[in-house]
């Protein structure tokens, strides 16, 4: 790692990496708290539809008021201060800004901002994994053609998993499985913003319920966020989704190599080379000890007896056979670590994970019986959850991406547990997100699933 040295070089030259941030929510604010303290970095502007909230968030993140008192983009550049604005497009168009951080969490907005960044020659760090799940492979392709970097966000679990997969492959190991941990029970797929508190109160001490968005939190609980994040991992690494999506097997940190290996070898996976999310809850409701609820992992294979002996000698968490081993990271620090992506894009022109193909999708799946004429409320809502699905299956069946299942009317009755199709909803074919998604489907088509390159 020499990113810090490169940042210091930019600082010494008086040419810090210039950054524009879109979205002053939790993730964006966590990044801003560290960006102020990072040599060689200048956050030129923060764009948020609620300018007052953005100012409040910067204050919460420890910024002195004078640092975000710039009156314009020109003033921000001149004084090395930060301009707060509601006009993200104007910020993106500023030729002096190098990197755009998209942290809105809204798929349509993320796609729009990514396209604008690419058009204006900006690197883009896509914190908005929801948008990446809808159209990331096409956005990354467009960015590469334009000579800019499209990157997943370091600190969020997909980018960290990509790094672990890359580490294993670069060290000559065959990757069997990679993923993260979460809290999961089968009935969570039916949770909604009203009853999610029954689950949250079991493991989070939230004294002020008004301080959080239950719909957003519910997307983590109902399995949607796991599907979105593992889709990002598949599309960036070449790993594949299992045919029926994530199974959420309970596992301790020390059982990862035993649980996350193929069923043919005594594990729970359909096959090797896939993603999986382990649960911190047993199916009877008991907590799993030493779980990985906030962490990430990779399981890999030792091809030789010597390598397998080394797994045991160096405490690499092998499975009972000694053939497989796991490496895990116990936590992720979300926006506090995002500066790694910003620096990597600007200084190395390398992403911290980026889509290379369309291998996995996240499809809208009914939480309950849905009636024709009703409006879908999208991620974390009352109507649908997002299930990881092989991309070829999604394309062949015409399934509706979860990221586009918001504020659209149903044409047909839908049974509980049924995957929705494009033909089940009334959608605007001229909507930017819809057009880009359709363009991606046409561009990648079928077949779209690649395999891990052979090792020699």
What strand line-up does the widest sheet have? Answer: 3-2-1-4-5-6
Strand content: 15-25%
What's the pLDDT, averaged over the residues?
95
Q: Which topology of the largest domain does CATH recognise?
A: Rossmann fold
**What Rg do the Cα atoms give?**
22 Å
Tell me about the largest β-sheet.
6 strands, parallel
**Helix percent band:** 25-40%
Give a brief outline of the structure:
The protein has 456 residues and is α/β, with parallel strands linked by helices. The protein contains 16 helices and 15 strands. The chain has three domains: 3-156 and 335-348, 3-Layer(aba) Sandwich (Rossmann fold); 158-184 and 223-331, no CATH class; 360-444, Antifreeze-like/N-acetylneuraminic acid synthase C-terminal domain (Type Iii Antifreeze Protein Isoform Hplc 12).
Present the secondary structure layout.
Elements: H1 3-12, E1 17-22, H2 26-35, E2 41-47, H3 51-60, H4 73-79, E3 83-85, H5 88-93, E4 99-102, H6 107-119, E5 123-126, H7 129-146, E6 150-152, H8 157-170, E7 174-182, H9 196-203, H10 214-221, H11 224-237, H12 256-259, E8 274-279, E9 296-301, H13 305-313, E10 324-329, H14 339-348, E11 360-366, E12 375-377, E13 384-390, H15 391-397, E14 406-410, E15 425-426, H16 432-444
Parallel strand pairs: 1-2, 1-4, 2-3, 4-5, 5-6, 7-8
Antiparallel strand pairs: 7-9, 9-10, 11-13, 12-14, 14-15
Helix pairs in contact: 1-14, 6-7, 6-16, 7-11, 7-16, 8-11, 9-10
List keywords for this structure.
16 helices; Type Iii Antifreeze Protein Isoform Hplc 12; alpha/beta; disordered C terminus; 4-stranded mixed β-sheet; 3 domains; 6-stranded parallel β-sheet; 456 residues; Rossmann fold
């Amino acid at each position: 790692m020499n990113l810090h040295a490169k940042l210091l070089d930019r600082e010494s030259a008086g040419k810090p990496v210039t950054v524009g941030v879109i979205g002053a929510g939790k993730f964006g604010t966590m990044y801003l708290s560290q960006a102020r303290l990072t040599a060689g970095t200048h956050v030129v502007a923060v764009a948020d539809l609620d300018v007052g909230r953005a100012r409040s968030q910067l204050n919460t993140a420890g910024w002195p008021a004078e640092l975000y008192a710039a009156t314009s983009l020109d003033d921000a550049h001149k004084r090395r201060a930060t301009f707060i604005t509601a006009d993200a497009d104007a910020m993106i168009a500023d030729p002096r800004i190098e990197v755009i951080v998209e942290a809105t969490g809204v798929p349509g907005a993320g796609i729009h901002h990514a396209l604008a960044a690419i058009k204006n020659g900006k690197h883009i760090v896509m914190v908005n994994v929801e948008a990446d799940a809808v159209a990331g492979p096409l956005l990354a392709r467009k960015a590469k053609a334009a000579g800019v970097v499209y990157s997943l966000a370091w600190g969020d679990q997909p980018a960290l998993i990509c790094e672990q997969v890359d580490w294993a492959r670069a060290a000559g190991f065959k990757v069997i499985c990679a993923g993260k941990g979460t809290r999961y029970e089968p009935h969570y797929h039916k949770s909604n913003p009203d009853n999610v508190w029954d689950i949250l109160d079991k493991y989070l001490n939230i004294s002020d319920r008004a301080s959080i968005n239950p719909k957003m939190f519910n997307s983590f609980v109902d399995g949607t966020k796991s599907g979105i994040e593992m889709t990002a991992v598949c599309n960036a690494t070449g790993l594949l989704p299992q045919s029926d999506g994530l199974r959420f097997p309970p596992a301790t940190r020390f059982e990862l190599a035993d649980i996350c290996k193929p069923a043919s070898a005594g594990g729970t996976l359909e096959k090797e080379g896939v993603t999986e999310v382990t649960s911190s809850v047993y199916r009877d409701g008991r907590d799993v000890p030493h779980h990985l609820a906030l962490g990430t992992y990779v399981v890999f294979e030792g091809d030789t007896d010597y390598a397998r002996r080394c797994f045991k000698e160096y405490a690499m968490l092998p499975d009972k056979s000694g053939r497989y081993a796991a490496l895990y990271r116990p936590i992720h620090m979300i926006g506090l670590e995002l500066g790694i992506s910003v620096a990597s894009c600007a200084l190395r022109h390398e992403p911290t994970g980026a889509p290379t193909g369309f291998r996995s999708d996240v499809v809208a799946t009914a939480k309950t019986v849905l009636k024709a004429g009703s409006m879908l409320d999208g991620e974390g809502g009352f109507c649908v959850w997002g299930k990881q699905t092989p991309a070829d299956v999604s394309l062949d069946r015409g399934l509706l991406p979860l990221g586009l299942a918001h504020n659209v009317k149903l044409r047909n009755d839908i049974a509980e547990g049924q995957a929705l199709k494009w033909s089940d909803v009334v959608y605007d074919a001229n909507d930017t997100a819809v057009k880009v998604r359709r363009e991606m489907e046409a561009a990648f088509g079928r077949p779209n699933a690649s395999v891990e390159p052979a090792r020699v």
